[in-house]
Design goal:
Oligomer: homodimer
CATH architecture of one domain in chain A: 3-Layer(aba) Sandwich
Largest interface: A-B, 60 and 60 residues
Distance between the termini of chain A: 51 Å
Number of helices of chain A: 8
Shape of chain A: globular
Strand order of the largest sheet of chain A: 4-3-5-6
Structural class of chain A: alpha/beta
Radius of gyration of chain A: 23 Å
Order of helices and strands of chain A: HHHEEEHEHEHEHH
CATH class of one domain in chain A: Alpha Beta
CATH topology of one domain in chain A: Dna Topoisomerase Vi A Subunit, Chain: A, domain 2
Helix content of chain A: 40-55%
């Protein structure tokens, strides 16, 4: 696989490490490593330590299981956020996506995956029980299911929905429809169909853009 | 520029460091960092330390100025290589390219750049004097100039050629011609022209492929 002749083991090592990253081939790895070589020692140290520290010091928030530097994450411990609305997402990336919209001021619950018989992921491996326990505390009034629109996402939605049945809590899901700026012509039939079924009052749609 | 909301400073730091790399945008940086997070601690440590150690411990070979883990690099200290032929290249990447051909068993000299009035690179900033000193020792019989075929490369070639005039040393340069497997139709005129001017004996061409 690698026939390169490195005159330096240190260089070879660094290239090997970089090329373990997804989407980084050996040519790119070499380019990145040669770039690091041109930086001063302090920059290289900062780079390396940022990865080591991240992996060693980062934890999962014990309330929402989002990534965190502290036992309870900055979102969960932020009292200006509405703890009565919980947005349920698959992973920490989805938390960032929702946060980037600046449209949500509630809290989160990160499942750490979705139910998938094919991949052998059972409900017990996900943070579903911990979600139910949060609801049991009685302060949550709405659960927003923000899982992917796949069979696995639907299965997980339904599983959680049934678990939540005994509680006085509204269960909602994200609106599906045509992306803002998209043409009808290029929208798939299922999305277009849903956007007709779940059409909204024109006046109420004016506020959101 | 970055409107992401990271719930973790450690995560944000690591993403910032990755996105300093050339060709790595913030989305890719996040993807790479999340990948690192999924690895075990030992892997993350190995990755980080490979960069730190590289930058802190690697040196330039004091003979040829190639990158090296030791004062004299593994190529210069390899006695089975022919020290009477020196291949002059612009940078350490070019050493790797030539090594990968497995066609060269001599030694190298890395200039660390080429003469470029536009970029303000003068001969004194390059490892040219050190090359002349190697020739002065009297054991070198051939210098292969393997610099880029650009105006700067030509200037540097000519500068070195004149510096070597006083010495009993053959100065050669890489053959330019049609790439192996390329069609004449798609070869630029200058390359095709050179390959006609510098045509080789058919029989002697049979050995190389």
């Amino acid at each position: 696989m690698h026939t390169e002749n490195f005159s330096s083991r240190l260089l070879e090592n660094a290239v090997n490490e970089f090329s373990k990253l997804p989407g980084i081939g050996r040519k790119t790895a070499l380019r990145l490593v040669l770039h690091m070589l041109r930086q001063d020692k302090e920059s290289a140290r900062q780079f390396g330590e940022s990865i080591i520290r991240l992996r060693e010091e980062v934890v999962r928030c014990r309330v929402c299981f989002n990534i965190s530097d502290t036992e309870v994450c900055s979102i969960c411990s932020n009292n200006s956020r509405d703890g009565s609305v919980i947005c349920v997402v698959e992973n920490i990336r989805d938390v960032m996506s929702v946060e980037n919209t600046h449209q949500f001021n509630g809290k989160y619950h990160v499942l750490g995956g979705i139910i998938s018989p094919v991949d052998g992921i059972a409900p017990s491996q996900l943070e579903i029980d911990s979600l139910i326990r949060r609801v049991e505390e009685g302060t949550v009034r709405e659960i927003i299911l923000a899982l992917p629109t796949t069979m696995e996402g639907d299965t997980t939605n339904f599983y959680i929905y049934r678990k939540l049945k005994p509680f006085q809590v509204a269960v909602t899901t994200l609106a599906r429809g045509i992306s803002v700026g998209d043409d009808l012509e290029y929208t798939d039939e299922i999305t277009l169909g849903r956007s007709i079924l779940h059409r909204v009052d024109f006046e109420s749609s004016l506020g959101t853009s």
